[in-house]
C-alpha cells in the first residue's frame, strides 16, 4: 500500500506531476515515481504482453487498410482489364476493316481503269454528237424559215376568208329575209 501511495505522489512535489526523468528528480532516485514505474513495467511478461498488443493493433490497422485498398484497387483493376479488352477488340476490328478496304482498293483500281477507257469512248461519241447537232441546227434554221413562211401564208388566208365573209354575208343576209325557213 505504501508503494501505491508513492506511485501516486509527484516526484518533485509539484502539482504537475512527475516529469519522468529520475536524474532531475529532487527526491531520492530509489523513491522516484519514474524509476518505480519503469522498474515495475520492465518485467519480461509485461513486455511480451505490450509487444503482443502492439503487434495486434498494427496487424488490425494493416488489415483495415488492406480492406480499404481492396475496395478501391480490385474494382479499378477489373475496370482496367475490361477497358483494355474492349480497346483490343476495337483495334482488332479496325485492322480487319482496313485489310478489307485494302483488298477492295485493288478492285476499285481495276474498275477505275475500265471507267477511264469508257470515258475515252464517251468523249469520242460526244464529238460525233456535236457534229450531228451542228448539222441539225442548219436543218432546224431552214425549218424555222419555212414555218415562218407557212405562218405568213396562213395569216394571208385568214385575211382572205375575212374579206370573203364580208362580201358574201351581206348579200346573203338580204337573201335570207326572202326565204321561208
Notable traits:
mainly alpha; 0% strand; elongated
Report on the structure:
By secondary structure, the chain is an all-alpha fold. It has a domain of 65 residues. 82% of the residues lie in helices and 0% in strands. The chain has 3 helices and no strands.
Short description:
82% of the residues lie in helices and 0% in strands. The protein has helices spanning 2-8, 33-41, 44-176.
What is the helix tally? 3
Number of DSSP E strands: 0
Residue fraction in strands: under 5%
The N- and C-terminal alpha carbons lie at a distance of: 170 Å
* Proportion of residues in helical segments: over 70%
Q: Which spans of ≥5 residues are poorly predicted at pLDDT below 50?
A: 1-10, 12-16
Shape: elongated
What structural class should be given to the helix and strand makeup? mainly alpha
Order of helices and strands: HHH
Q: What is the radius of gyration? A: 62 Å
For the sheet with most strands, the description reads: none
Whole-number mean pLDDT: 79
Describe the secondary structure blueprint for this structure:
Elements: H1 2-8, H2 33-41, H3 44-176
Amino acid at each position: 500500500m505504501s508503494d501505491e501511495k508513492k506511485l501516486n505522489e509527484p516526484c518533485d512535489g509539484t502539482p504537475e506531476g512527475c516529469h519522468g526523468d529520475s536524474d532531475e528528480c529532487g527526491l531520492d532516485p530509489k523513491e522516484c515515481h519514474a524509476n518505480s514505474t519503469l522498474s515495475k513495467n520492465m518485467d519480461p511478461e509485461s513486455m511480451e504482453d505490450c509487444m503482443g498488443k502492439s503487434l495486434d493493433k498494427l496487424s488490425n490497422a494493416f488489415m483495415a487498410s488492406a480492406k480499404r485498398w481492396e475496395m478501391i484497387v480490385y474494382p479499378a483493376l477489373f475496370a482496367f482489364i475490361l477497358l483494355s479488352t474492349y480497346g483490343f477488340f476495337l483495334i482488332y476490328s479496325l485492322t480487319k476493316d482496313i485489310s478489307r478496304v485494302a483488298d477492295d482498293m485493288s478492285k476499285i483500281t481495276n474498275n477505275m481503269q475500265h471507267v477511264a477507257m469508257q470515258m475515252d469512248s464517251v468523249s469520242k461519241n460526244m464529238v460525233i454528237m456535236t457534229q450531228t447537232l451542228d448539222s441539225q441546227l442548219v436543218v432546224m434554221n431552214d425549218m424555222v424559215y419555212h414555218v415562218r413562211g407557212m405562218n405568213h401564208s396562213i395569216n394571208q388566208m385568214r385575211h382572205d376568208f375575212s374579206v370573203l365573209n364580208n362580201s358574201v354575208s351581206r348579200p346573203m343576209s338580204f337573201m335570207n329575209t326572202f326565204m321561208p325557213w
